[in-house]
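haha ok so turns out i had the wrong file open the whole time. this is the CORRECT one, sorry everyone. sequence first:
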Amino acid sequence: MEKIIPQSEDKIIKKNADPKPDEILKKDLKLNKDNIKDIVKYVARIADKKGAEYVNILEMKNRLVITDFFIIIGARNIKSTTSMVDEIKFRLKQYDLSPLHTAGLTEGNWILIDFNDFVVHVFTEEFRQFYDLERLWKDSKTIDWKN
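then structure:
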């Protein structure tokens, strides 16, 4: 007997069964704990796929002793920021990467996820423009994550 699946559940099943979207995110990347540069590119691609309005990676190796990269993400609203944070944490957990600390989840306008080697800043677009981390760290090298 065939099981009747409501349309929304059917879409979820198809989404989980289709490996192509995840393969596109991983394209040309070697994802492991030893290849942090590819991990940060992967995070940028995840945010882009989740609808980020802005994504930038700054290399901080020669600027800060506490981390090697900043990933700066701008999102439409608080719902988007929290959704992106959940997705990033979920996907990185598959590579045994868990944050040391997460801050700002309650407010949601600026969520910081510290993975030690890199820090992810997820802002609402208004907060991203106000704090303008790129201006503060304007001498930092920008990492291309799209190809």
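Confidence is low (pLDDT under 50) at residues 8-19.
again sry for the mixup
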